Amino acid sequence: MKGKLKFFFAKITAWIEAVTKPLFGGIRFLSFGLAEDLQTDLFSKDLRFTTGYYAIELQLFAAADEGRTEPPSERRRREEKEKGNVPKSNEVASTLVLLGGTGVLFILGDTFIRNTAIFIKKYLPMGMKLDRFGAEEFRVILAGVSRDFFNLLWPILAITLVFAIVGNVVQVGFMFSPRALSFRFDRIAPNFKRVLPNRQTLFNLVKSLAKVVLIGVISYVLISGDFLKVLLTGNMGMMQAITLITYSGFKIMMAAGLLLLGIAVADFFFQKSEFEESLKQTPSEAKREMKEDSGDPVMKNRRMQLARDMMQGNMLREVPKADVVITNPTHYSVALSYEMGRDSAPRVIAKGENRLALEIRRIARENDVPIIESPKQARLLYAQVEVGEEIPQEFFQAVVQILITLEKFKKKVGMA
């Protein structure tokens, strides 16, 4: 007997290896052997589950995310949401639909059972005589069956629709993504990349096995309690039999729904965790995204420098038109100009500090523009008046006193 069992397990192991090895190549997949060596006595006390050639390697599950160490940015979350990609568990919606439908059956149980019995009594006899009806009579009967069947089920259909919507809203809120409706070739076989084992497929496997086992166990326990009663339904009246079967079904669905609710909650948090992992970025991706959002700092500084150089170039070309340059005399230079009929007050046409101040004075000397040293006025004008603006009223007296000392300016305004 033991020899036959050894031979049987050897065949099974060989078959598993023959099937899975071509599919997964060098990937070490999950399988269990009853002993490290088939020569081990299968009935010894040392019997244990071990992994043979195939084994779980957790590194495999992290390989897809290798190098993705940076947390997801708000931009990446927003883009994924626009595509319709959000952390969501289908188990939550399906479980709420099951519980909602079961709840409707519980609340409307008597009415539903009574209407079901009426429906059966009305149409079951007709089903025995279908060969006697003509086409018109059959059409009328079919229309009546459809109408009454819809009237019987519409409360359940309505509540399941509501709970299906609620099951999605509680997870992601109210959201509409037109991009999710667009056609994409990668949606033709969206699960193709999931053929190889990863955390998602392993979790789905465990989840499916848990649902099968738990629902199977709870169904067995509940049905066992009502088994003898179900056997006696042939001796009961129709209403009594329907009531018993409906009650048994209600207990099974409610128990299964509560079990599935626990699985759905676990699935939701797992899907949320997987979604966060999928959004993580490599350092290079995060750096590139930051550059795209805020602009390349190097290029941004370069553009600002070019703008400053252009502005300074335009400003320096205005210095020869100045009536006076006020300095402090080493750090600041402010060039002023006044055009009768255009300006209501002298206007700042150029200003600068340090190197630029020296450049303004150089151009002024080359073009015979008067240079007046007035440290206080130079500092105040530089700090408070921008290029192109007229000087404020508080500067009028001091600036006018400077201008009227200049023969060139007096000739210009007709004072000489």
Automatic annotation (TrEMBL):
One BP annotation, GO: protein secretion
At the top level, the lineage of the source is Bacteria
Annotated segments matching region Disordered: 66-87
The entry's keywords:
Cell projection, Cilium, Flagellum, Membrane, Transmembrane, Transmembrane helix
Q: Biased composition, Basic and acidic residues: where in the chain?
A: 66-85
Q: Can you name a GO cellular component term?
A: plasma membrane
User: Where is the chain membrane-spanning?
Assistant: 96-120, 152-177, 209-232, 252-270
UniProt record similarity statement: Belongs to the type III secretion exporter family.
Q: Which PANTHER family match?
A: FLAGELLAR BIOSYNTHETIC PROTEIN FLHB
Protein name (Swiss-Prot/TrEMBL): Flagellar biosynthetic protein FlhB
In its UniProt entry, the species of origin is given as Leptospira meyeri
